[in-house]
Amino acid sequence: MNGMKRLQGVAALLGLLVLAQPANSAELKIFGSRVTKVIVGELGPQFEKATGYTPVVIADVAQVMKRRIEAGEPFDLAVLVDFQIDDLIKTDKLLADSRSDIMSSGIGVAVKRGAPKPDIGTTEAFKQTLLKAKSVTYLKEGASTIHLRKLFVQLGIADAVKAKAVETDGEMVSELVAEGKVELGLIVVPNIMSVPGAELVGPLPKEINSIVMFTAAVSAASPNREAARQLIKLLKSPEAKPVIQAKGNDPA
Description:
single chain; 10 strands
């Protein structure tokens, strides 16, 4: 029943967002990370039905997508980490008046589904779990990794972790854990929850965790600016909040 009410609510909202539909369904190109792809995957069909635009998410590590924008690749909407969006606004790649925080996620720990869950309940327990693990994986570059590298130094385990770390170029952290190739994965919680073979142990202890804010803005060069703005409105709507929360995020 709740699911039906949610869909009805989204449909009602989209009724207010109907645009002058293009003669043929047009693509709305979105640059983001997997977090964005999962959410838009849920809301996209209703948006397409109401507006005539098909939202297509091109996903990779947020920093990689930022470089593609800087290189001049065409797109309509970006949903990246907040400071990356701010940088792109400063260089006139994105429209400042379209900037909107969408959702936030904390960093979590992943193990292969069915494997014993280690203790990460306290800072010391998390430290000992990392030291005992045979292997650890995290993004080679990413907002979560910036924090993790500082944290490893703070905990005095930087060298120990580096010696057994697998840094991924793409967003393959949870996949490597699910396949049993790496024992522990460290990445934002929604990424873990999106991979069936991986299991979330839990978020890092609050005192050492970092919250990553995902923010949207419209491309200054987009020919579909109005459609992109309407998608932001949908992502910010009360009807979208249950979808965002169900995927392990906190609505902004």
